[in-house]
Specification:
By secondary structure, the protein is of the alpha/beta class. The chain has one domain: Rossmann fold, CATH 3.40.50. Helix content is 31%, strand content 19%. A nine-stranded mixed beta sheet has the order 1-2-3-5-4-6-7-10-11, with helices on both faces. The protein has a two-stranded antiparallel sheet with strand order 8-9. Strand 10, helix 6 and strand 11 form a beta-alpha-beta unit. It is globular, with a radius of gyration of 19 Å. The chain starts with a strand and ends in a 5-residue tail after the last helix.
Amino acid sequence: MLISCRSPDGGRAGAPVTRFITRGPAARIEVLDWGGSGAPLVFLPGLGNTAHVYQDFAPRFTDQHRVVAITPRGFGASRPNDRGAPLDTVLADIAAVIDSLGLAPVTLVGHSLGGDLTTFFAARFGPRVARVVYLDGANDRRPGAQPPPNAGWPAPPQMTAEDSASVQAFQAYVERTYGPRLPPADLLATHRFDRTGRLQGDITPDSVVRVLIGSMRPAPYDSVAVPALAVYPRPDAARYDMPYWNRLRGAPRADADSLTAWLVRASRANIDSVRAMLRSLEVVEIPTSGHLIFLLTPSETEAAMRTFLGRDRR
């Protein structure tokens, strides 16, 4: 299995090495490698992001861990990215990365849908996994588990020409609207920009997402035998997680209130469901955070992970 490497950012200190693990004649999987020594951490992004979303968070752990992040096939620079890959292929790619870099056994760290991939991988490739960490990524997706409220999702503000004028302007729009400050490298990996720097659209077609999601069933938490940590944002009925909701009025504001109240109830029910299914689970809830928890509250998320990861060294 071939591995090609390049150093981004001119070898800037702290920047990862980007590796490509070849998977047949036309497929390659992008891996960001921050180095470090100690028990390996392998980060998996959520749907809509790439390994680059961990650009600032993952290297916090290189003092005690070997740290890498994987962009799943079909997304970003993991090719082919013009057609989808089913779950079995994505899991086999993750195993190939771990084996090619000699990392097993690893701690898998998954955000959002990356948490589902983490669960499927730990259930299927158990000997390669020592522990799992879910960053708002342990969710009971069984049909009917969390019935949605009878409320519409308020439409976000329309992007202006100024909002799409550059990567930095788009980054500011996302932060102002949704809360997290996404790394520019992740925005560049997931969106197309023209020669002037203006946003043109998404890189990943919807069909890629449909293939992956369509091949997945609810994650088999009861098949995960290793210790697990689930870090959740703690929703607050008196606080909107979406910044743009604070500017709503009338019916959209009422929908936001209903959704927030539902989120508080559903979050508690979800944690209880996951606790019942996972054999060895520790839960940490972080207030005043949100879905991209490691970007919104990085220090608190890091502290929760370090406490969990440090137990094996005592």
